[in-house]
Design brief:
The complex is a heterodimer. By secondary structure, chain A is an alpha+beta fold. Chain A is built from four helices and ten strands; from the N terminus they run βαββββαβββαββα. Chain A has a four-stranded mixed β-sheet with strand order 1-6-8-2, sandwiched between helices. In chain A, strands 7-5-9-10 form a four-stranded antiparallel β-sheet, with no helix packed on it. A two-stranded antiparallel sheet of chain A has the order 3-4. In chain B, 27% of the residues lie in helices and 22% in strands. By secondary structure, chain B is of the alpha+beta class. Chain B starts with a strand and ends in a 6-residue tail after the last strand. Classes of the chains: A alpha+beta, B alpha+beta. Chains A and B meet through β5, α3 and β9 of A and α1 of B.
Chain lengths: 157, 83
């Protein structure tokens, strides 16, 4: 179980290797890596706009608290051997890594489901905000309703 | 009471944080948002669409009827967009 919020980039291979080192009970590792896209999603019938850069802001303290809570919830729902969430903040360029979620378990289905759950809940509950820089200026990214729908899949009825 | 502002609430209000001393009749998140709207043009503009404002009291998401007290840390921010 580990949470990191940092400005520096991360090495995906090294992180996964460190997580699984000597842990021969692990049978599967699932990961999600979020990257900075170089375009703004166009509206219907519109041209897409090129993104020159992105800045990520967060709420220090609450961010770590929410990420830990989401990670705890994943560990309650699935039998996981290891989990890792790294989220970058500060100035990022297209192609840069933003977020890494890794889940390791004895069996692949637990690892895959937990990974999907973690990124869905992180997107709707962890206090991060993106602003995108285009040729016409800098703009705060609007929350997507589709992200709420994806997160709601994991609500317990 | 310590107030924190993030993303476009921070840029519109023009500061990241401040200490405030709201009147005694400010008892809930809703009351606090209404009181803040009257503090100046930046506040009125930032809070013109209260449906786009999320609130955390002491780093926990809080509903509009949640209580606020003088020693609380209250954060105002738009819906989150990380990941």
């Amino acid at each position: 179980m580990a949470i990191r919020v940092q400005e520096e980039d991360f090495d995906i291979g090294a992180e996964i290797k460190a997580l699984t080192l000597g842990r021969t009970e692990i049978g599967g590792v699932a990961s999600f890596i979020g990257l900075v896209r170089d375009f703004v999603d166009p509206g219907a019938g519109q041209e897409s706009t090129a993104i020159r850069g992105m800045t990520l802001e967060h709420y220090p303290g609450m961010t770590e608290k929410m990420l830990s809570r989401i990670e705890d919830e994943a560990n309650r729902r699935w039998p996981l051997d290891a989990t890792l969430i790294i989220h970058r903040v500060g100035a990022l360029a297209p192609g840069d890594n933003i977020v890494l979620v890794v889940c390791a378990a004895a069996h692949r289905e637990d690892a895959l489901q937990a990974c999907s759950f973690l990124i869905d809940w992180l997107k709707t509950q962890a206090p991060f905000w993106k602003s995108e820089r285009t040729a016409t200026g800098e703009k705060w990214v609007k929350a997507k309703q589709s992200d709420d729908v994806l997160a709601a899949r994991w609500e317990k009825t | 009471m310590k107030l924190l502002y993030f993303a476009w609430l921070r840029t519109r209000i023009g500061r990241a944080e401040e200490e405030v001393d709201p009147p005694a009749d400010v008892a809930t998140v809703e009351d606090l948002l209404r009181w803040l709207q009257g503090r100046g043009a930046g506040y009125a503009e930032a809070l013109a669409r209260p449906d786009l404002v999320r609130v955390a009291v002491n780093q926990e998401f809080a509903a509009r009827d949640a209580p606020v007290a003088s020693n609380d840390e209250v954060a105002l921010f738009p819906p989150v967009t990380g990941g």
